[in-house]
Amino acid sequence: MAMTKIRPWLLGMIITVALFSVAYPAHAQRTTLSSSVPEIPETIFAAGDIAKCNGDHSKWEELMQVVGLLPESVGEEKEEKEPALHKLLELVGWIEETDYHANAEKTANLLYGRKGRILALGDLGYPHGSSRSFNKCYDRTWGRLKHRTYPVPGNHEYKTRNALPYFAYWGPRAGETGKGYYSFDLGGWHIIALNSKLEKSQDRDTISIQHAWLQQDLAATDANCILAYWHHPVFSSGRHGGSQRMKNILQTLYASGVSVVLKGHDHDYERFAPQNAEGDLDHARGFRAFVVGTGGAPLHSLETRQKNSEFFQADTLGVLKLELYSDRYNWEFLPVGGTPPLDTGTGSCVLPKKG
């Protein structure tokens, strides 16, 4: 049988390919290529305490409530650490100098054209969370971003019985009517929305329906990182101060490895160092807490600086931006007016505890 003659140029190509394959195996090429592709983070923005309708209620009626001559709205219990003098000063501020619509429009403008989910941290419709507050005031500002907003209720939503206008405005996006808690996944993160108005007991042996749901939700997730958000902060240096109503739930979140906790209620922006549910520093497994009550309501000054508070400002409205990676997160506080971010940083995820 005659031998097939290989042309010199073809033989040279075969030898070159063989040598390249030995030096650079196929799996090595794939590994190098995939590892060079940067991870694209998921982006969320957050703020609470946003919009109010002028004329939505009687100023005289509210003044009567402040001085105690008229009862609070049906279904509304008094908030913690809310002296009548503070309420009166706040009311005077609303009358004389606060333009809620303009303020809410300014913070909403920070979000137009920026891609990402939006977490609305409660007190979205002042003063009574009425249908008019949502349909005439919130809807004209932040409502234009409704399709990508995930809300939680605040205490002002409950100044109208059972926060029914809030649930009617948001529909399924706010969770089940009357409950207002839900969760969803975003990239490698599990995001949990909670209703702090449902939590009233400080007895650790008492588990609410929401708390039981949370335990089941945490047990079911396989996400690498966890973020939770609600309205009333457990720790705050602002006028309202910390509220104990979410302390039991915070214990459960900490034990499960929550990385980031977001709240509103106090009209300021504050960031805490990683800490545990008792407020002690914990750089190994602590969560980073933010208060972002800067969506449009009049800002309140510093009251009593809490331990582990690393940054506090009540000079400008704005929103918190978070970039969520599979094992870490970056944050920026974006102020109105186009100035550079006031507060920036990065943190690592706490690995969720299982078992």
List keywords for this structure.
15 strands; 6-stranded mixed β-sheet; 355 residues; alpha/beta; 9 helices; 20% strand; 7-stranded mixed β-sheet; globular
Mean pLDDT: 82
Strand content: 15-25%
SS-derived structural category: alpha/beta
N to C succession of SSEs: HHEEHHHEEHEHEEHEHEEEEEEE
| Quaternary organization | single chain
Percentage of residues assigned to helices = 25-40%
Shape: globular
Number of strands: 15
Regions with little confidence, pLDDT below 50 for 5+ residues: 19-34, 69-77, 93-98
How would a crystallographer describe the biggest sheet? 7 strands, mixed
What value does the Rg take, in angstroms? 26 Å
Number of helices: 9
Strand order of the largest sheet: 6-7-8-9-11-10-12
- How far is the first residue's CA from the last residue's CA? 71 Å
Q: Would you mind describing this structure in some detail?
A:
The protein has 355 residues and is α/β, with parallel strands linked by helices. It contains 9 helices and 15 strands. The chain has helices at 8-23, 26-35, 59-66, 84-96, 100-109, 131-138, 164-170, 209-220, 247-256, and strands spanning 42-47, 51-52, 117-120, 125-126, 149-151, 182-186, 189-193, 225-229, 260-263, 269-272, 288-292, 309-313, 318-324, 328-335, 343-348. Strands 6-7-8-9-11-10-12 form a 7-stranded mixed β-sheet, with no helix packed on it. It has a 6-stranded mixed β-sheet with strand order 5-3-1-13-14-15, with no helix packed on it. Strands 2-4 form a two-stranded parallel ribbon. Helix 3 (59-66) runs antiparallel to helix 4 (84-96) and helix 8 packs parallel to helix 9 (247-256). It is globular, with a radius of gyration of 26 Å.
